[in-house]
Amino acid sequence: MSEFKLHLRSQIQPFKGSDEWHAISLEHSVPIQQTALLLCDIWDKHWCQSATYRCGEIARQANQVAKSARQKGAQIIHAPSDTMEFYENFEQRQMMQNLANSEMPTPLDLPDPPQPIDASDGGCDDDPQCEAVGLWTQQDPIIEIGKNDGISDNGQEVYNLLRLKEISTLLIMGVHTNMCILGRSFSIKAMTRIGVNCILVRDLTDAMYNPKRAPFVSHQKGTELVIEYIEKYWCPTVLSRDLLG
To answer: Which tens digits make up the pLDDT trace of 136-174?
Structure first.
């Protein structure tokens, strides 16, 4: 069985109770047939103009990664939240809706420390800030949807597909790192709590963060801090080149 050879990055705390953390790397192979790649909220348009631009950049690269993973035999799941009405007549959406429900395990009570950035203002880094209204209608159309892909924004449906296909590893890319990537019902926190091995594709994600808020760093640095936070408390990360082979 062919495999993805992944170079995982995680964070360790050698001395518990201290603020000292170190990045470590670990080689880890996963069977491609037991792997799914989920594209989280890579919408056609965001209410924040800067977020829309950065999401478009991610979409172009994510499409190439998804295409490569699909050709290798990985399951692709498109998860553009709040747009399922657009996809109601797609076979890939109907397939997810028609799956038999699998009983979810009791979620683990895992630590959930505060995040390292303040996004209480919504995270828009435009000046003036954009009005927070939902403008998305679908996934960025540059992203191709394969015949055997799935479309869902529902954690139960995603879990049903993982169990049906005996998938144990869920790779996640998309936006936003400090919000949907962590908090959606199909994403890192929820899936980790029920025993799914999640991995974040760290070069194909972006945070909602305004540098005028704590810790008063650049937008890029803010995203990096959230990625490190995920590596500390939730799951490892990889670079997309590992999926491209």
So the answer is: 999 999 999 999 999 999 999 999 999 999 999 999 999
* Tens of pLDDT, residues 45-86: 999 999 999 999 999 999 999 999 999 999 999 999 999 999
pLDDT digit string, tens, across residues 29-53: 999 999 999 999 999 999 999 999 9
- For residues 209 and 185, the answer to whether their CB atoms sit within 8 Å is no
Please calculate the CA angle 98-70-185 and round it to the nearest 5 degrees. Answer: 50
Q: What residue spans define the domains of the chain?
A: 3-108+117-244
CB 181 within 8 A of CB 42: no
Please tell me the class of the 3-108+117-244 domain: alpha beta
Where b means 16+ CB within 10 Å and e means fewer, 69-90 reads: bbebebbbbbbbbebbebbeeb
pTM of structure:
0.97
